[in-house]
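Hey L., structure's done. Input below.
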Amino acid sequence: MNEVRNAKLVRQTGKKLSNWGRWGADDEHGTLNYITPDCIAEATRLARKGKVFRLGLNYDKDGPELVGSDLLRRFNPIHLMLAHGGDAAIGACTLPGGAQFSDDIVIMPLQSATHWDSLAHAFYDGKLYNGYSMTETTGTGARRNSIDKACDGIIGRGVLMDIARSQGKDILDTDHGITPEELDACAERQGVTIRQGDIICIRTGFIQKLLRENDKKAYTQTWPGLSFECVHWLSRHRVAAVTADTIGLEVYPCGFEDGCFLPLHMVTIRDMGMPIGEMFNFEVLSTDSAADNVYEFFFIGTPIPITGAVGSPVNPLAVK
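Output:
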C-alpha cells in the first residue's frame, strides 16, 4: 500500500534519514563531510583532457527571475558602474601618473541565477540542520549553517545524471517526477557507479525553456525534477551535494495531498544536511558526454564566502 504523501511523511522521513550528530554536535558541513581528501585527490584524475565546461548562467538583467512571480521576491541582478570612461573623459577617475580606471557594483539576491542553497536556507518546526534553532538566522544573516561554512567543501567527483537523454527526450515533461528507479536506470545506461561523496548533477533539459525559448514564465512556474522518494536514494548513496538545471531541483507542483511545499528541500537541507544547487546549465556538457560516453568529471563549485549568507552565486566548472 502506497504511503500517504503529506507533511507527516516529510517529518517521518526526515527523522529516519537525519544526520544530526553524525559528524559532531557542532557540525555545519553536513553531507559535505562525505568528501574526504582521498575523494578529492581521486577526482582530480578525472581531468584527463583538460576540457572545461561552464555549468552556470550569467548574472545580468536578462536572468531567469520573473519579477512578481516569486514568493521570495527575487529579481535579476542589477549591474551599475561606479566609475567609467566617461568619468575619466571629464577629468575624474584619473590617478597621478595618468592611470585611469573603472569600477562597478552589483545588487542582487544571492539565489537569482545559478546558486547554492546553504544549510540555513530551509528549515521547519523551528530547527535548522543539526538541531540549531531557527533563531540562528537573523536580520543580519545566519550564525549557523551559513554558506561560508561550505566554501572549502564543494569540490570533487561530479556525475552527470542525464535523465532526459537517457529516456530519449530533449526535455522532460513539466510534471515529470523523477523516481529512484529512473536514477538507477540512468546510471546503468551511462555506465557509472555512484560513490560516496559524489556531487550529482541532474539534467532534465528544462533550462532550454529559458536559454532557447526565452520563456521565463514556463521556466519558473512549474518544472520537472526529483520526486520526494529520491531522498532515500541520495541518502543511500551518501551523496555530498545535488544540483539540477531547474529553479527548484524537485518536481513542482510536488503532488502532496496537503499542499506541502518543496518537501524534498525540507529533508535534504534540514535533516540530511545536504547542499542543493539550482539553475545549473548542463547542455554543453550533456552533448559532450553523449559523444564520448564519459559522465564523470572533476567538479569545482566553490561558493562565494559571504559571511552569514544562506545562499551564494557560483561559477561551477566540470573538467574532463
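DSSP finds ten helices and 15 strands in the chain. The first strand starts at residue 52 and ends at 54.

-- N.
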